[in-house]
Prior knowledge:
This protein is of the alpha+beta class. The model is unreliable at about 10-20 (pLDDT under 50). The longest helix is centred in the first third of the chain and has 18 residues, at about 1-20. The termini are far apart. The protein is globular. The chain has one domain (about 25-135). It has helices at about 1-20, 30-35, 65-80; strands spanning about 40-45, 55-65, 85, 90, 95-100, 105-110, 130-135.
Amino acid sequence: MKRLVRGCFFVVLAVLVGCAKAEPRCEDVLAKLSDKPGFVEFLECTQDNEIQGKPFVARYRVKGSDALEAEQFMSQSFGMPKLQHICCGWDSTPHFYRDKRTRLGYRLGMGSEETLIDERSSWPRIKFFYITASLFTEDP
């Protein structure tokens, strides 16, 4: 009888542990959410405690020669719209993505460094593009 009770206890405990919600953490978000290509270089993840929502912000860098493929990856994986040339660089509109597994929401963005290059075919002449993925840790 003791074995049965002990066995049931461990089964219930295992179920409860499996249902526990993992706390968000600062990490390589794109690798966690998708099959991140090798040319998307993870730079860092930091928490910005000075702004509302105290987001974790993962930052990435992509060479200009790989920017078109990176834009396609972001579009196919997360539905992010194409970059547009505005004033002094290429930039995406702020984009929101919700992970289907965890239901966590992420704000994604991609843009170039400052440049006067205004034709997509000339992106390889831009040294770097940058991608950010933010996860807010507090309700606004």
